[in-house]
Request: fold
Amino acid sequence: MICQTIRKGQECAFMTAKGCSYNGGLCHEIVEECKGCGRSQQMESGWYCTACPEPEIKWKHGHCNMATHVTIATNGTSKKLNPLKASKRRSR
Reply:
């Protein structure tokens, strides 16, 4: 349904005929870690996340899985190969 509280005119999964069904009845503003994310959007009353109604929860245990500005660095180690399979590949 279309949001009638904070994000007026936008599609919202928590909006019902009785109003916002999310905890507290409205979305929470973004946290400091969300600054620079492509999913943050400025509304009349502040900056809000378009993917999550309470961004603080997403950042509680590390990086937000919806963040577009965070890159996960890999340490470049390759996967361990099975020696039996590797020898069969070499024989082809």
Q: What stands out?
A: Strands lie at 15-16, 19-20, 40-43, 46-49.
